[in-house]
Design brief:
By secondary structure, this protein is mainly β. It has a 4-stranded antiparallel β-sheet with strand order 1-3-6-5, with no helix packed on it. Strands 2-7-8-4 form a 4-stranded mixed β-sheet, with no helix packed on it. The termini are far apart. The protein is 0% helix and 36% strand.
Length: 83
């Protein structure tokens, strides 16, 4: 009785690369305009003041400032300027 299977082709062996999603900048951190704040699929985090949303739902800063998160039934991400 054989202890190994025959060396036929296998159906597994494929896997996708991880997409490195998630929050890239924490609350209270200083960012420059254009900085990526959140990489996401769908709108788990919603853009608020001074935050833009890319075509792949990435959130990015529109101005220089400090990042803040506000949570109600959704989580809003905003950038507060010094002025």
């Amino acid at each position: 009785m054989a202890h190994k299977k025959g060396q036929g082709s296998t159906r597994n062996g494929r896997d996708s690369h991880s997409k490195r999603l998630g929050i890239k900048v924490g609350a209270g951190q200083v960012v420059t305009a254009g900085s990526i704040l959140v990489r996401q699929r769908g709108t788990k985090y919603t853009p608020s003041k001074n935050v833009g949303r890319g075509s792949d739902d990435t959130l990015f800063a529109l101005v220089d400032g400090i990042v803040s998160f506000r949570s109600t039934n959704k989580t809003y991400v905003s950038v507060v300027t010094g002025a």
